[in-house]
Amino acid sequence: MLIAFNKPHGVLCQFTDRSTPPRPTLAGFGLPAGVYPAGRLDHDSEGLLLLTDDGALAHRITDPRHKLAKVYLVQVEGTPSAAQLDALRGGIELADGRTRPAQAEVVEPPALWPRDPPVRFRKTVPDAWLRLAIGEGRNRQVRRMTAAVGLPTLRLVRVAIGAHALGGLAPGAWRPVDDGQDITGGGATSAPIPGGRPVC
Fold this sequence. Notes:
Blueprint: E1 2-7, E2 36-37, E3 46-52, H1 55-62, E4 70-77, H2 82-90, E5 93-94, E6 97-98, E7 103-107, E8 127-134, H3 141-148, E9 153-161, E10 164-165, E11 174-176
Parallel strand pairs: 3-9
Antiparallel strand pairs: 1-3, 1-11, 2-3, 4-8, 4-9, 5-6, 7-8, 9-10
């Protein structure tokens, strides 16, 4: 079984939380029994999360050797320059090593659901949207990459993992998907990137 879920902002990628007070978890969305996340999304990130009850399938989704493309729409603070985009495309030196080359382009603001809570803006600082595809899944990797080139992330929405796209799923909604597809198809350097129209 493979489930596509649109994880809302502020929800943990786990079914229990021992914090006091407890934080929102996956338990509140009526997901099928026995599934667990194949990979993670930070609590302050949104979008596509795949869940499965198949350990081998989860491994294929999460193992970086498969170079499975993970595609994000990223709202950043600042106006991206050609040099900043080239740096993202070439790989960024982070504390845990250099990232693989990414696909990165500026896109028009996408038609997304309102975030709760809303993103806080500074009137004197412009913002922009990027479409970014990576073949890795390090902790808070996209946020660290954009920060490293001087473009702090304001909002982060994952829209695709390999062949599976978020589509029209509303926040908190889920659907079963065909787990017979080649989930490992499409590396970050070759897969088309859905979501957002490129800025000419």
